[in-house]
Design brief:
The chain is 50% helix and 17% strand. The protein folds into two domains: 132 residues, Rossmann fold (3-Layer(aba) Sandwich), CATH 3.40.50.1970; 178 residues, Dehydroquinate synthase-like, alpha domain, CATH 1.20.1090. The chain is built from 13 helices and ten strands. The protein binds adenosine-5'-diphosphate (ADP) and zinc ion. Zinc ion binds next to helix 10.
Amino acid sequence: MKQYAIITDDNLAKIYKKELSELYPNSFLCVVRAGEKSKSLKTIEKLTSMLSKKNFSKSDTLVAFGGGVIGDITGLLASLYMRGVTFINIPTTLLAMCDASIGGKNGVDTEDGKNILGTIYQPHAVIIQPKYLKSLPLKEIKNGMAEAIKMAIIKDKKMFNFIEQNREKILKKEILTLKKIITRCGEIKSEIVENDEKDTGSRHILNYGHTIGHAIERASNYTIEHGKAVALGIGYENQIALNKKTIQKSEVDRIQKIFNDFALTEKVKKVSMKKLHAGILHDKKRKNDTIHLYLPTSIGSAQAYDISLKDIQTVLV
Ligand code: ADP
Ligand code: ZN
């Protein structure tokens, strides 16, 4: 009989252990500590020996039950264990439901940075059940909204309007409202990924806000969360867009307001500008003195531009 190994973190295990054992009768739980620190090769090794001890074989299935961290670890483990086993992803954060669980990217961090080691390996299925958001801390809902708003800015003005009009419902975690946003994000992300699975061109549009966002995370030593860093990154990248006159000021102001409404621009610990500038040089998409950046042309659409490091550094003051 097929075995399921459910990879989850300690917070989720506390809440959902019973439900999971009922859902997957022939299963065992592998619990890792919650948090980005678990995204390491050490965790992959520990999980590997847990699987071996249970005689987990090539015909068994891994289940990721958690946020982006769990999805990343499980995806990588699934692609490596016995040269590849089936995995199912059950995202439990808004960020993972809207973004991270789709596209097959996984990874762990090394001393040199985030997601330095990883593969692209597609899950057999992604099972999204918004009911799991009921136990998710509100702060994490706001972080997830940063990615949803990003998708709206680059691809869907209607979703942007919807989010603007439904702020209260979102923050109250109204399931139907969240479901609409998750569904639309899934459609947008799948369409982008299908056209460029290996991330060599058009998929870069998903990186909007992330070039500067990643540099902010790095400069803060990862004390600023991903969602917030992306919102701040979008703020800076929009300044570049304004300087390049790709978008009107009124549109940029609307974007800034929506991030304010979700408390994504609240004061964060000041990051060192020197570190931020250094972080930009680390960008995977840098080519000599330019970076290929997608900038918005209006709410709902974005275009690629080659932006010089100088133009990026000008807004980082
Ligand atoms: P992401 O990378 O998707 O933002 P993480 O995997 O870092 O998310 O998870 C963020 C935090 O939220 C972790 O502490 C995790 O244990 C917790 N968490 C994830 N999903 C839930 C949930 N449905 N209910 C309660 N806590 C959750
Ligand atoms: Zn992101």
